[in-house]
Amino acid sequence: MKKIDEQRYLWLLRVFIIFMVLSLILNLILLFSFDKIAPQTKWEAFFVEAQDDNIESLYIQRSSDLSIYQNSIGNQIAKTYITQYVIERESLYTNPIKMRQIWGPDSNLFFLSSESVYRDFYNSPYFKHGLLNPEKQIITVSINPDDVQYHTELNLWEIFATLNITDQFGLNKKTEIKKIQIKAKFLQTPYKKNTKAMWKNPLGFVIEEYKYIK
Fold first, then answer.
1. Which residues span the domain enclosing 190?
2. 68-77: b or e for each residue (b if 16 or more CB lie within 10 Å)?
3. Threshold 0.70, pTM exceeds
4. Number of domains making up the chain
5. Pairing mode, if any, of strands 137-142 and 148-151?
6. Is the pLDDT of residue 84 over 90?
7. What pLDDT, in 10s, does the model give residues 126-178?
8. What single string gives the DSSP state of each residue in 157-195?
9. Residue 44: CB partners within 8 Å, gap ≥ 6?
10. Which residues, at least 6 apart from 150, have a Cβ–Cβ distance to it below 8 Å?
């Protein structure tokens, strides 16, 4: 009888160990799956007004009234867009896929630029060189929030961007400062946008002029 009880105990122990191993493997698979999925998940919120049930007719109520820059919320929204825009426009990577993501026709840069601003940038040697034939050089950009200022009397933004320049191995390092002036606005009247544009630039914030100041 004692021998039968020992065999039963050993059998239950083996079943328990197998169950624990399978459970551990399953948890590891789930953890790996969530790790892969999580970086692709992003939530964005904005207000839209729909004329009918067709998503293509969604549009945003906007205002070009300059007073929007004078209140803390409007100023902070514009500053956020401009900071993002400058960082992406001045950055340079050796990976051509990364460059298409930040400069190409589906980029934030494209949707935040007026037609003339993006056309001038697209036709510039810097764009052709950076997108089609990047050197083995990496430029990352940092901007202090205090270095993004709006000048009411001139209706323009002034930004100081710090460019951290290294080679592909991170051996040669140097820093440059670019002073940039930007004219921008929230579009005055609502206009229809396709779905992609709606997600990229829901508030209709547009860069109208982008130039370097020596």
1. 56-213
2. bbeeeebeeb
3. no
4. 1
5. unpaired
6. yes
7. 888 777 666 678 899 999 988 999 988 888 999 999 999 988 776 778 999 99
8. EEEEEEEEEEETTS-SEEEEEEEEEEEEEE-SS-----H
9. 199, 202
10. 69, 75, 78, 79, 156, 157
Locus of tokens 């080679």: 167
SS3 161: strand
What pLDDT is recorded for position 83?
94
Give the pLDDT of residue 117: 95
Query: Using DSSP, how many helices (H) and how many strands (E) does the chain show?
Result: 7, 5
pLDDT value at residue 103: 93
| C-alpha to C-alpha distance for 94 and 167, rounded to whole angstroms | 9
Q: How far apart are CA 171 and CA 143, in angstroms?
A: 23
Q: What is the CATH number of the domain that holds 140?
A: 3.10.450.230
> The tokens of 194 are what?
């396709």
Q: Is 10 among the domain residues?
A: no
Residue at 17 is within a domain: no
Strands 156-167 and 205-213, sheet pairing: unpaired
Structure tokens at 137: 């050089």
Counting beta carbons within 10 angstroms of the beta carbon of residue 87, is it exposed (0 to 12), middle (13 to 18) or buried (19 or more)? middle
User: Which DSSP helix (H) or strand (E) runs through 79?
Assistant: helix 72-90
- Angle (nearest 5°) at CA 200 between 195 and 203: 95
Query: Which three-class secondary structure state does DSSP give residue 104?
Result: coil
